[in-house]
Fold this sequence. Notes:
The structure is a single chain. The chain has seven helices and 13 strands. The two termini are about 40 Å apart. The protein has one domain (about 45-260): Sandwich (Jelly Rolls), CATH 2.60.120.10. The strands form four sheets. It has a six-stranded antiparallel β-sheet with strand order 1-2-9-4-7-11. A three-stranded antiparallel β-sheet has the order 6-5-8. It has a two-stranded antiparallel ribbon with strand order 3-10. By secondary structure, the protein is an alpha+beta fold.
Amino acid sequence: xxxxxxxxxxxxxxxxxxxxxxxxxxxxxxxxxxxxxxxxxxxxxxxxxxxxxxxxxxxxxxxxxxxxxxxxxxxxxxxxxxxxxxxxxxxxxxxxxxxxxxxxxxxxxxxxxxxxxxxxxxxxxxxxxxxxxxxxxxxxxxxxxxxxxxxxxxxxxxxxxxxxxxxxxxxxxxxxxxxxxxxxxxxxxxxxxxxxxxxxxxxxxxxxxxxxxxxxxxxxxxxxxxxxxxxxxxxxxxxxxxxxxxxxxxxxxxxxxxxxxxxxxxxxxx
Length: 270
């Protein structure tokens, strides 16, 4: 840079502007360049710390007891990778979080415990270990654990960083704090989880899957059946997508989800 250019850049900066050619490759890279770095979080390392939150903070103090996963290279945002947030949430028997909604889409994967439930726009679902649950953007939802249950931990995944990057996020608490259950319990699974079947005359106009809960048993059975007739992907093993039963597409418009099974001795390629 010549002295004249340096002065020129300084003048532009004072006016709240800049020269594109000085940042072009940064803001328009030749190929995607993720600022996130590879990292592994081990459940056995985190579980005791997550459970300690039950003793240290009440639901009222914390809002939600969540230990979030922080990518060490993403100091600018709270993200696990890319524009996705993830954390481990714990609730005790008899607790129920207030109903709320937000522009971020969310998914849950139940890791342990008994008696957990969620209510999405009046559809209450009972949750078991390894069940996969959707709380799509804009839906009223709340979570809890029945009085006779055990402490429950599930992994949350949301596109909060993406919504914040788009200046599009909001968070709203239900005016009644808890919403009514307006459908039979587990009606979404009973209606939309048929093996290649859909109820005659039933329609769904939302841009997300009507099957809010994907139960573990049929999921694992599908993986095992598929494994019997395929060698699987050399990169991902036995790899299947959770899907919207109406469209065959992704479960939500901003977050997809899949599940992988690695068989004993299997090692995938980079």
